Amino acid sequence: MIKTGATVLWKRLPIHFVTTLRQVPYFQVYSDQEDLIGGHQVVDVLQNMSTSMKNSDDFELYRIQQEMLENHANTLPEAHSGINHNNKGWSLDKYKNLPMLQHAWSVRPQAKWFIFMDADSYVFWTPMLRWLRTLNYRHALYMGSAVGNPPVQFAHGGSVAVLSRGAMLRTFGNDPDLYGKYDAAVTKDCCGDHMVAKVLYDHGIKMAVGDGVYPYAKWRFQGEPQWLVFTNKHNWCAPILSFHHISPRDIEEIHQFELEFRKTHHDDQPIRYVDVYHKFMHDYLEEEKDDWDNRSNDREYSPSYKNAFRTSEYTSLEKCKKACEDWSECVGWRKGPDFCGLSKSVRLGRRVVRYGEDIHNEGIHWISGWMLDRIRKIRSESGCDYVEDEHLGPKDVSEIRPEHQA
């Protein structure tokens, strides 16, 4: 199941038809407007919502899209529609998850596994399907990247979530009108993927979050693009299955990496965090990199930044670097105006241009760096990585695209 929206469908979805979706036996695209793309039907998953729900403020974008569809008009870009598609699309998105699962069960009740993702996600399907074959689909299993706190932890939808036939049979397979019973709850909730967890919890199913125990889901699902993956001593050798918040170009890059990996490894070899590190990070790490934001954020210090520890003690470059040196787990740091961030995970990040349109960092000078010796130590102690006599970075950073172009 791929969940998307009409305003981004034609931007995000086409690349999947020539990459990820060629590897799965069956899939269905769900959106907030009926469509046809590449010969594949796009289901309007909101079409059977109640009239009162469709008339609510959260459905403003939906009503506009339906009017345009009835008048044979394409969905207009934000600049011409008079509304903010991002905000309205987000308000609408949370209503899709439950009817999507209800529809999926109605058309494929014989399926052993129900996997849902966003159109800006990527899945390593070969290892995903191989792993699922080791599990019992008759058990009520709910797996993904855990968000929130007990008792209702939920699988982040963009990071890809998996439900077994056993879980679906106990919920949507047992009540064809189940999603409608949660209409009022959805309006008050933040997110559709959280509502999935709420429905499952109400039926005695909790998310599988244990480390080293069946069904061995921890670390497999994560919600970052390939250049922001949290890679650390805990997951270095662990399998990785998913990425999120990625562009069509990112999808092509990850797909090519996957194809090359398959040429040089046995079919049963999973792709691990260490493999992602060597492909997308290793050659670009330096002790200090100018105009670069590696998103180090495990510890943040600033006299003014929101959510940072309020202090000006580490806001000079040398003091920020020293703070990383003094914290034994620190492997990365970043310095901005009145800000110092530290990380215990290796993350590459991206170049930050100091001109042009930059919605996050306009006019801000970022400097980042990594503790190369500590990274070598993690690698050498991992048991799955070979540390040769080498200088760790740098490589020609022109090969890495800036996050924001001028």
Keywords:
19 strands, seven-stranded mixed β-sheet, disordered C terminus
Describe this structure in words.
The chain is α+β, with helices and mostly antiparallel strands. It is 31% helix and 15% strand. It has 15 helices and 19 strands. It has helices at residues 9-12, 14-17, 51-54, 60-70, 78-81, 85-93, 97-107, 125-132, 165-170, 183-188, 192-202, 248-264, 273-280, 317-326, 372-382; strands spanning 2-3, 29-31, 35-37, 40-44, 113-118, 121-123, 142-143, 146-147, 154-155, 161-164, 242-244, 289-290, 292-293, 299-302, 309-310, 332-336, 339-343, 350-351, 367-370. Mean pLDDT is 89; it is low at 77-81 and 393-406.
Please describe the topology of this protein.
Elements: E1 2-3, H1 9-12, H2 14-17, E2 29-31, E3 35-37, E4 40-44, H3 51-54, H4 60-70, H5 78-81, H6 85-93, H7 97-107, E5 113-118, E6 121-123, H8 125-132, E7 142-143, E8 146-147, E9 154-155, E10 161-164, H9 165-170, H10 183-188, H11 192-202, E11 242-244, H12 248-264, H13 273-280, E12 289-290, E13 292-293, E14 299-302, E15 309-310, H14 317-326, E16 332-336, E17 339-343, E18 350-351, E19 367-370, H15 372-382
Parallel strand pairs: 1-2, 1-5, 2-4, 14-15
Antiparallel strand pairs: 3-4, 5-10, 6-11, 7-10, 8-9, 12-19, 13-18, 14-17, 16-17, 16-19
Percent of residues in beta strands: 15-25%
- Unreliably modeled segments: 77-81, 393-406
Q: Helical proportion?
A: 25-40%
The largest pleated sheet is described as: 7 strands, mixed
Count of runs of 4 or more consecutive helical residues? 15
Could you tell me the mean pLDDT? 89
